[in-house]
């Protein structure tokens, strides 16, 4: 990572600069020399030959330049080690870890529910201690090992037991999908079938912490010193307790009464797609709770809760080029938005016949428009293969598709945008932007609040310091960084809600904005 010149506190020379200065000084000195008669001792041609590239004097100058350049590079390297964001990996892992007593986080295992057929009232032994020899364990088809987290007794009617498993084997691979078969290998109850089936996708499995993940955590440690159970320490404990799965922890002191504290936890996205990726798994929450339980005094009332996702719908106006691979695919993109009103599906006859509402008419060209639909569940744009468009009057348009779209079921309310070849970049940037937001408040902390906790039960860290909770125009810089010069300008035509709403009760946990229905249109 480059370090700004004004942070180095010393000038930096490029390779060859000193060599050229040396040769320039030599040439000037030779021109000033005279013979016994007062005539120039050397002609310009002789000086040029003497200082030509790869000659004797050039070689001496280049050797001096190389030695000084290497010394300078060492100084630059040492200067970079003073800042965590520019330090080398070896410095981070050897020096900063010891200096700040902040080890890299271990890999975490995925967690999720498994349906386990068995006889009625069968007891499945679980444990929140990974590797507990008494807990039931199983393997997936790839040989990864999982453990039952909580002891469960199957229903009296003989229905399968629903078990919560967590990966003893860690990493992205432990985020197995729904339908995966788990074969029981240890402490299997009598009268249980040999295997169970994953009910919903596992999440929370991540590899060991990398330098890009470690540096922000280290900077937070430097900015806010943890100690004596303060807010910074509660956050640091929560991040460490979840191994590398915790992607955010927010502290609300005295959330219920004096001596109480609420910690809201979000999960790292990892390889999981969609707006719900930051909802922590049961395994992640359990690890955090166990870690805090071993450190917080017994007289303190504390609670660890997951964040609650709240969809935020957006309408974006982007100044992208037309008929371009870097912008809109069509020469006349359609649909377009008039103000803050997005085009959206109003009727779905079947997956190839839909009706949309648009306050602008399609261009009068012989070509069918290239359009795409936003898939909220995966935070992605999916192209629709249009066969024809016909007006149904009143700003409604019937669209016939040449084929049903893959990866999505068209439904009323989904937003339609003109197609852009940059749709994947835009969608990923929108997801990254929402991942940068933090949790909202749990009570009204405004200046007009009548809640007597408003002065101390606010979110820590404060939104104006780290991880803002408001969504809006701050998305545009994200898109400009991702699209570069292809994006000339952009605005947020509409966003709702822009700030997470308050929960009905603090014990419900704070809301966190995630990408809802998104529409993008020409500016």
Strand content: 25-35%
Q: Tell me about the biggest sheet? A: 7 strands, antiparallel
Mean pLDDT: 93
Distance between the termini: 34 Å
- In angstroms, what is the radius of gyration? 31 Å
Structural class: alpha+beta
Return residue spans where pLDDT drops below 50 for at least 5 consecutive residues. none
The percentage helix is 10-25%
Helix count, per DSSP?
A: 10
Can you count the beta strands?
Answer: 21
The quaternary state of the protein chains shown equals single chain
Shape: globular
How many domain units? Answer: 4
Strand order of the largest sheet: 16-15-19-13-14-18-17
Key words describing this protein structure:
523 residues; alpha+beta; Elongation Factor Tu (Ef-tu), domain 3; GMP Synthetase, Chain A, domain 3; 4 domains; 7-stranded antiparallel sheet; 6-stranded antiparallel β-barrel; 10 helices; 23% helix; 25% strand
Q: Would you summarize the structure shown here?
A:
The chain is an alpha+beta fold and 523 residues long.
Question: How would you explain this protein's 3D organization?
Answer:
- This protein has 523 residues and is of the alpha+beta class.
- It has four domains: 5-80, no CATH class; 111-198, Elongation Factor Tu (Ef-tu), domain 3; 211-306, GMP Synthetase, Chain A, domain 3 (2-Layer Sandwich), CATH 3.30.300; 311-523, no CATH class.
- 23% of the residues lie in helices and 25% in strands.
- The protein is built from ten helices and 21 strands.
- The chain has helices at residues 5-8, 17-32, 44-50, 56-80, 89-100, 211-223, 231-241, 282-293, 423-435, 475-483; strands at residues 111-116, 123-124, 137-139, 145-148, 152-153, 161-167, 181-186, 195-198, 246-253, 260-267, 301-306, 308-320, 343-350, 353-357, 371-375, 380-384, 386-393, 396-401, 415-418, 487-496, 511-522.
- Strands 16-15-19-13-14-18-17 form a seven-stranded antiparallel β-sheet, with helices on one face.
- Strand 3 (137-139) and strand 4 (145-148) form a beta hairpin.
- The two termini are 34 Å apart.
- The mean pLDDT is 93.
């Amino acid at each position: 990572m480059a370090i700004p010149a004004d942070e180095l506190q010393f000038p930096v020379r490029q390779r060859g600069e000193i060599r050229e200065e040396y040769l320039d000084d030599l040439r000037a000195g030779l021109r000033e020399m005279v013979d016994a008669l007062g005539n120039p001792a050397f002609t310009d041609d002789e000086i040029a030959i003497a200082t030509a590239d790869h000659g004797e004097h050039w070689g001496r100058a280049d050797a001096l330049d190389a030695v000084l350049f290497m010394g300078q590079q060492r100084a630059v390297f040492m200067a970079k080690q003073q800042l965590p964001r520019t330090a080398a990996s070896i410095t981070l892992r050897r020096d900063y870890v010891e200096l700040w007593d902040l080890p890299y986080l271990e890999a975490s295992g995925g967690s999720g529910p498994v349906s386990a057929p068995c006889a009625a009232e069968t007891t499945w032994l679980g444990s929140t201690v990974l590797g507990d020899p008494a807990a039931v364990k199983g393997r997936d088809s790839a040989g990864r090992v999982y453990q039952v987290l909580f002891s469960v007794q199957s229903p009296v009617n003989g229905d399968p037991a629903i078990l919560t498993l967590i990966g003893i084997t860690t990493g992205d691979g432990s985020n197995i999908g729904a339908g995966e078969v788990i074969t029981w290998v240890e402490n299997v109850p009598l009268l249980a079938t040999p295997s169970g089936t994953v009910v919903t996708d596992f999440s929370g499995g991540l590899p060991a912490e990398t330098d890009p993940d470690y540096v922000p955590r280290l900077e937070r440690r430097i900015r806010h010193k943890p100690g004596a159970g303060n807010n910074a320490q509660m956050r640091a404990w929560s991040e460490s307790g979840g191994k590398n799965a915790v992607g955010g922890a927010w502290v609300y002191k005295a959330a219920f009464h004096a001596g109480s504290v609420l910690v809201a936890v979000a999960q790292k996205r990892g390889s999981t797609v969609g707006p719900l990726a930051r909802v922590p798994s049961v395994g992640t929450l359990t690890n955090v709770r166990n870690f805090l339980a071993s450190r917080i005094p017994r007289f303190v009332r504390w609670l660890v809760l997951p964040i609650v996702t709240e969809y935020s719908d957006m309408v974006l106006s982007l100044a992208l080029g037309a008929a371009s691979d870097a912008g809109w695919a069509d020469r006349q993109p359609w649909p377009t938005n008039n103000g803050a009103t997005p085009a959206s599906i109003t009727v779905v006859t079947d997956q190839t016949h839909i009706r949309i509402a648009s306050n602008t008419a399609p261009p009068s060209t012989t070509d069918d428009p290239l359009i795409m639909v936003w898939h909220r569940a995966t935070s992605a744009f999916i192209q629709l293969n249009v066969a024809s468009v016909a007006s149904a009057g009143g700003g409604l348009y019937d669209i016939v598709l040449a084929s049903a779209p893959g990866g999505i079921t068209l439904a009323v309310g989904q937003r339609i945008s003109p197609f852009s070849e940059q749709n994947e970049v835009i969608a990923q940037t929108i997801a990254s932007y929402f991942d940068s937001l933090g949790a909202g408040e749990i009570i009204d902390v405004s200046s007009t609040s009548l809640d007597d906790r408003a002065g101390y039960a606010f979110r820590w860290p404060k939104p104006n310091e780290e991880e803002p909770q408001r969504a809006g125009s701050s998305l545009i810089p994200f898109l400009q960084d991702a699209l570069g010069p292809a994006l000339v300008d952009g605005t947020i035509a509409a966003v709702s809600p822009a700030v997470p709403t308050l929960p009905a009760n603090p014990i419900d946990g704070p809301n966190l904005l995630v990408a809802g229905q998104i529409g993008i249109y020409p500016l």
